[in-house]
Design a protein that fits this description.
mainly alpha, Methane Monooxygenase Hydroxylase, Chain G, domain 1
Length: 120
């Protein structure tokens, strides 16, 4: 993706902040997936619960990116590449939330130890 210089340095900073936060979220989700995979393969209930408890950070990142994008869309009314960047960022953060992670259930007290504790 090409980065164009804008006449407004503030606008360029807003776009760069969105780009950087999307990259940060991508790295974060990659780490979460790695931890979730390790927890599953080793049946590590403690690590799995850490993944579940850490989900709030992913939620926070998603909301922050969405808010930045919506604010920039409303204030700047971007076109072409900038519009594609912002709409793609909004789609990516939603996709980042759809990874197959651990889900807490009321049946086991909101943790996954019931699913990982014993081998079948």
């Amino acid at each position: 993706m090409t980065v164009h210089a804008h006449t407004s340095l503030e606008y360029e900073a807003e776009l760069a902040a969105v780009r950087n936060r999307v990259l940060d979220m991508g790295r974060h989700v990659d780490e979460v997936l790695d931890s979730a995979g390790r927890a599953l393969s080793t049946r590590d209930a403690k690590l799995a619960n850490q993944v579940i408890l850490g989900d709030q950070e992913t939620d926070t990142m998603e909301l922050e990116i969405d808010n930045r994008c919506l604010e920039t869309l409303a204030r700047r009314q971007p076109v072409a590449d900038d519009l594609r960047l912002l709409t793609s960022a909004m789609k990516l953060v939603i996709a980042g939330r759809r990874f197959p992670g651990f889900e807490s259930t009321p049946r086991n007290g909101g943790n996954c130890s019931g699913r990982l504790g014993a081998r079948t």
